[in-house]
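Here is one chain, start to finish.
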Amino acid sequence: MDLGEATVTDTDVATDADLLTWCRRRLRAVLPELPSSLDELRRRMEEVRGRRIELTMTDPGRLRLPSGLWGQVRSGAAVHDLVWVDRRTSPFARTVVACHEFGHMICGHEPDPVPAATPEPVGALAADLALDPAHLAAIVGRCGELCAPGSPEWRREREAELTGRLLAQHILGSHGPA
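Its structure:
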């Protein structure tokens, strides 16, 4: 399935309820049957995207990173996706964060472009994750940035947030009460 860029435009969505409806439709178009675990989500998205997806949870050390990130790892001509989640969060939060990152893929988003220069600490973490240091630097550079409501960046994050929430509710609800 070609996911393509499917970001919602201003004319498509007037309210959060409209955006949630769009996200629900997009999710069902990409994954007609919702997965019951993160591993199943990863496997199903590998099939949809036609490439390997690595889901990893590690400690970022002293770096100020978001609690999760999604990037593409290039090795020669081969490309695979990497979803990274900070393991210092709770199992519940890790599921929510991972689902947000998969939400970007489901919504047809692409990772941000990478800068030319890479800060030294970022290079060390990038090596641990087998991720392009420039790509990780682009993500770290975004940490703490606020997106203006209604901006393309805001919509992109909101789409991933709502889609990820739908996924997480299903995955966390699939396991019944503890």
